[in-house]
Amino acid sequence: MTETTLDPEDSKIITLARAARARNGTAEGGAVRDETGRTYTATNVDLPSLKLSAVQVAVAMAVSSGAVSLEAAALVSDGEEPGEHDLAAVRDLGEAVVFLAAPDGTVKGRYI
Fold first, then answer.
1. Could you tell me the residue range of the domain that residue 32 belongs to?
2. What's the pLDDT tens digit per position in 48-59?
3. Partner of 74 for a Cys bridge, out of 13, 18, 43, 64, CB 3.0 to 4.6 A?
4. Packing angle between helix 84-91 and helix 54-64, nearest 10 degrees?
5. N- to C-terminal Cα separation, the chain
6. Model pTM?
7. Gap between the Cα atoms of 13 and 74, Å rounded
8. Whole-angstrom Cα distance, residue 13 to residue 75?
9. Which phi and psi angles does 27 have, rounded to 5°?
10. Are 31 and 73 in contact (CB under 8 A)?
């Protein structure tokens, strides 16, 4: 599956996650789209006292902005699959699809 075969809105969150990752030079970029179509982008947080994945941060941003459910999430990473903590954070707000993409935007997986 490539980014060009996705729904344009799903391609958009992958592009936003890629941009966040590249801009901040982090290991992960994440983005989520809520039930109203608003998007939230983030990168992972890796501090001595706080460690969060990019998806966890994006979900937290959505919730703190009033989102009650998610339509989709994207994780851009060198990893082979999203962590269970990423999937759990998305599942807390419903049954949204989670796309895993490589840094070049190639979709490596789709998880529900």
1. 3-111
2. 999 999 999 999
3. 13
4. 20
5. 16
6. 0.91
7. 6
8. 9
9. -75, -30
10. yes
